[in-house]
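Can anyone check this?
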Amino acid sequence: MSALKSSLAGLLGTALVLQIWYEAHVFGREPLTFLYAYRIVLIAGFALLLLSRGGSQSVNAVVRFWIAVDFAYSIADRFGLLGHYGSPGVSWGNWKNFVAYTHALNGLLPLAAAPLLAVAATVYEAVLTVTLAFGILSRLFCLAAALLTGIYVITMSLTGGFMSQFDYAVLLLCVGSLFLAVVS
């Protein structure tokens, strides 16, 4: 287990460096929104997690909570609770735009599959929000979060290029969730 933990710590460090590099390049070009500030908080949280090597249950709980906040924010966005499409920090602004984005990420599947995938992703994220926020079966649901965000990393990178997923710190969330699954 120690070798796995060390390997994941190395991957988490790499994901942190990539996300910090990305933030340095968008600093000043992107409006200061909750999403931007949140990515900075995620970086700090995952850096503390890495420095503690997952040994601090307090740090683990806070980082797990911030992952839950990420899923909740995403759900709120797709239902228009954060504002309309085009507003700073809003990716979709409504369900229709989210379904269209889901289809864009899964373009090889029939158009009719997009609404089903959008509902499945939303339910999956809602379950993750609750379980991670309250620390329910932490290892299992951190692993589930890593699986989902891993799928997002792959689909976003294939459809929008590798850099597209850094707007949402998806790689950092993926590796960090996996690290938490091992150390929790």
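Reply from J.R.: I decoded it. The longest helix spans residues 2-26.
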